[in-house]
Amino acid sequence: MPIFYVTISLSCSLLAPYISSGIFWEILKLWIKGSKVIVLDIPLLFEAKMDKWTKPIIVVWVDPETQLHRLMARDGSNEEDAQNRINAQMSLDLKRKKADIVINNTGSLDELNEEFQKVLCEVTKPLTWTEFGLSRQGALSVLASTIVGVIFCRNILSNSSRL
């Protein structure tokens, strides 16, 4: 089962509407191709108000102290610069409250992988009826049922008008 990743970094609010439109078209193309899982890696998902059309929302959470130390190690930045960068975004605690699924990233890489595998099982489980209705297969089923219904009704109406 292929999983597609679309990575976006929204650094300019002026470009956000165009980026959102581009993301939508990429998602639509993947949906038409039959992708069962599409992962959007969008650091500013909530700030860009793109959370309204994504489901489920998965937040990878870490405690603030670990987040600060990891950011400093990754970027080679000092504590003040790293803290300013963290403060420029919505807090992970607030994102965690808005999430449908939270992946705890305070442990080791092996623990993170284990958490990810649990989430992967969750998002690839069989669909509910509502989710099916919103899926490619559900949309095609509705379209086929509608076409069959229209043809059936036309035949009944044309046969009754002959009598």
How would you describe this structure to a colleague?
This is Dephospho-CoA kinase. Keywords: ATP-binding, Nucleotide-binding. InterPro entries: Depp_CoAkinase (IPR001977), P-loop_NTPase (IPR027417). It holds the Pfam family CoaE. It comes from Cannabis sativa. It is a single chain. The protein is mainly alpha-helical and 163 residues long. It folds into three domains: 54 residues, no CATH class; 69 residues, no CATH class; 35 residues. It is built from seven helices and four strands. The protein has a two-stranded parallel ribbon with strand order 1-2. A two-stranded parallel ribbon has the order 3-4. Helix 2 crosses helix 3. The longest helix has 27 residues. The protein is elongated.
Rg on CA atoms, Å = 22 Å
The total of beta strands comes to 4
Q: Would you tell me the overall average pLDDT?
A: 82
Strand order of the largest sheet: 1-2
**Largest sheet, if any?**
2 strands, parallel
Residue stretches low in confidence (pLDDT < 50, at least 5 long) are 3-11
Q: What is the tally of helical segments?
A: 7
Structural domain tally: 3
Report the order of strands and helices: EHEEHHHEHHH
Give the termini distance in whole angstroms.
54 Å
Beta-strand percent range:
5-15%
Portion of residues in helices? 55-70%
Shape assignment? elongated
Structural class by sheet pairing and helices: mainly alpha
Protein name: Dephospho-CoA kinase
Keywords: ATP-binding, Nucleotide-binding
GO molecular function, one term: ATP binding
Pfam families: CoaE (PF01121)
